[in-house]
Write a structure and sequence with these properties.
Strand order of the largest sheet: 1-2
Number of strands: 2
Radius of gyration: 18 Å
Shape: rod-shaped
Strand content: 5-15%
Number of domains: 1
Helix content: 55-70%
Largest sheet: 2 strands, antiparallel
Low-confidence stretches: none
Mean pLDDT: 80
Amino acid sequence: MAPHRHRHGYRSSATEWARIVPALMKSRSLASHELSTVESYCVAVARIRECEAVIQKHGLTFVSPTGESKRRARDHHSQRKY
């Protein structure tokens, strides 16, 4: 039986946990010291899904108080060249 780790309030992180942990446990590919890493992965997946939903609903730009169309900070930073 897979351990229960979901504590972050993201339904989709619990869904992701339920999707991957049983398979990892069955294949003996998950050690107890790796549970926090899997938990972080599940929360990251949930946050990405949440962000994508916001982008789908509101777009990558917004109208500033002065009426200008501006890129959201996330989009601006994704364009950086390092």
